[in-house]
Amino acid sequence: MTTRITRRTALAGITTAGLAAPVFVRSASAQAAQVVLYTSNPAQAVEAVTDVARKALPNIKVSTVTGGSGQLLRRIEAEAAKTQADVFWTSSANTLGAFKQFYEPYKVKDADAILPALRHPENLWTAANMHVAVLMVNTAQIGGLPAPKTYADLLDPKFKGKLIIADPANSSTGYTILWGIEKLLGADGLKALANNVKQTASAPTVLRSVAQGEFPVGLTFESNAYGYVAGGQKEISLVYPADGTFTTPEFYTLIKGAPGGTAARQVCDLLASKDVQTALLEIAFRRPVRTDIEVGKIVKLPELSTIKVFATDEADAAAQRKSFLERWAALAAAAGN
Questions:
Q1: Which residues are bridge partners to 131 per DSSP?
Q2: For the purposes of burial, counting CB atoms within 10 Å of the CB of 24, is it exposed (0-12), middle (13-18) or buried (19 or more)?
Q3: What is the average pLDDT value for the chain, to the nearest integer?
Q4: pLDDT tens, position by position, 220-240
Q5: 321-334 and 172-196 helices cross at what angle (nearest 10)?
Q6: What single DSSP character describes residue 145?
Q7: Residue from 202, 146, 153 nearest 181 by CA
């Protein structure tokens, strides 16, 4: 069903490396049966979706272009005069909101199974899953340091050079966490964190760096870190900060002028389906947003009701994105990042 290898050959260069790439052309006959999915999700999440799609949508071919959420959204912006993507999957609203002029309203078929709060009021985007921010800790590499229990613990100078996070300009993971930390701990807290943390280009690098022991603590999302726990890496643990952590739905959207037309809308419907959301939980540990799926019956993750959550305003985060990124970039530069 997927044509990722063929398409990647044709689209050599469309990765997290940058925006430059050859433009591909769809023939009229392929237009109704081919969908190009720009996705920031890891391979196991993409495979979970395409495995379901192979059976549910046998007459549609899905090609994937991968990269960081911010990088892909900037690519969509650059391609607005000649749209290449059909569907973007996924990012937090705090990042999506800065690019909403490039989306087309669409109410998915199973919208009623998703809480209204998790759908854009004008149907510009729909939630695909719920993320919880965590500290991914490699207990074999933390040495004599006490394992952090709160975000405030990370401000201790003892953690300088021990922490890693994704660049918020490229990653909605990084943006969600850093925005939340500033709201939780204030501007001084954000500055102190900038002095301690190493910034990297993408969210997957955070995971690999902690898993391989290069950094003892990574600031990331639960679903991404839990894969290492489920995979048997016993030195990896997930900490849900006791001073409150951040939750954010991740959304997908239909791109304005999507060349895939009806087929693109069918893929949007599929992403909201119970089959896909169950598969994403089983395989990629993504918390579903449907009201008819019980997390605890499928994977060993804590119920959301047991986690202390520090509420943040997604709309405000989207509106203040540019100024926050400028502020963070200055702090990171001053810290030598």
A1: 248
A2: middle
A3: 89
A4: 999 999 999 999 999 999 999
A5: 30
A6: S
A7: 153
Dihedral pair phi/psi, residue 172, rounded to 5°: -70, -25
- Give dist(CA 176, CA 314) in Å, integer: 9
Q: Could you give the 3-state DSSP secondary structure of residue 331?
A: helix
Residue type, 204: P
Instruction: Specify the DSSP class assigned to residue 288.
Output: P
Pair of tokens at residue 309: 């959550």
Q: If we measure between CA atoms, which residue out of 37, 42, 4, 21 comes closest to residue 166?
A: 42
CA distance 9 to 65: 11
Return the bridge partners of 134, or none.
220
Q: How many CB atoms lie within 10 A of CB 115?
A: 12
* 3-state secondary structure (DSSP) of residue 249: strand
CB–CB of 165/68 below 8 Å?
no
Strand, helix or coil at 333? helix
pLDDT tens digits along 291-326: 999 898 999 899 888 999 999 998 899 899 999 999
Which residues, 6+ apart, have CB-to-CB distance to 170 below 8 Å?
A: 16, 68, 69, 70, 71, 201, 202
DSSP letter at 166?
Answer: E
SS3 212: coil
Greatest CA separation for the chain: 63
Q: Does residue 15 contact residue 67 with C-beta atoms inside 8 Å? A: yes
- Give the containing element (helix H, strand E) for 300: none
